[in-house]
Structure formats: C-alpha cells, structure tokens
Design a protein that fits this description.
119 residues; flat
Length: 119
C-alpha cells in the first residue's frame, strides 16, 4: 500500500512539473513574440525612414543638375543631318495562327468523341 501512495505521489509530481513547464514555455514564447514583433516594426520603420532619406537625397541631386544648352546652338551640331530610313509596316504572320491552313483537311469532332493521334 505504501508503494501505491508513493507511485501516485510521483505521478502527480511529474504531471505538475510537466504542466508548469508547459505554462512557463508558452509564457516565454508569447513574451518573446511580442518583443520580436516590436523589433521588426522598429526595423521596418528604420528601413522606411532610410529609404525616404535616400529618395529625398536623389531628388535634391536631380534638381541641382544644370544642362548646358549652348551645345545645341553650336554650328557643328546644327550641320548634322538625319539620314534615317523609314521602315515600312509589313503584315507579319496570320491573323489566327491556330486556324487550319487553306487547302488542308481539318479534323472535326462532335461532342463526346475523342480523336486519337496518329503514330
């Protein structure tokens, strides 16, 4: 009888330890998740701020560009001629590439029938 009591007592202690361990584990994981999500939000905010600063920097660089237009008034530039050739528009291909070719027999099927390929 004494061994039954100690065996029951041991089982109860083991169950209580398992439950306590599970509660501690879930508590630790939930607090860790909250902390990590807060860090991710901070990291995302920092990345967004860095990207915004980069965009502003590039915009300021673009605004500060000065183009010298005197090149377009230079006589050597004005003496250039356009020798390009216009390429005529050609109709390429068929309007429906999947339509049967003219002069060839086409296989027609009725609903519920199958066509077996030639081998």
């Amino acid at each position: 009888m004494n061994t039954k009591k100690s065996s029951k007592k041991t089982i109860i202690i083991i169950v209580v330890l398992i439950v306590a361990s599970a509660i501690a584990y879930f508590y630790y994981e939930s607090s860790n998740t909250v902390t990590n999500s807060g860090l991710e939000t901070t990291a995302e905010t920092t990345d967004a701020q860095a990207a915004g600063a980069r965009v502003l920097s590039l915009l300021n660089q673009i605004k500060s560009i000065k183009i010298d237009t005197t090149v377009f008034k230079d006589p050597s530039y004005l003496s250039l001629r356009d020798y390009s050739v216009e390429i005529p528009q050609d109709n390429v291909g068929r309007s429906n590439p999947f339509a049967p070719l003219p002069g060839t027999a086409s296989a027609t099927t009725t609903p519920g029938t199958t066509v077996t390929p030639r081998r």
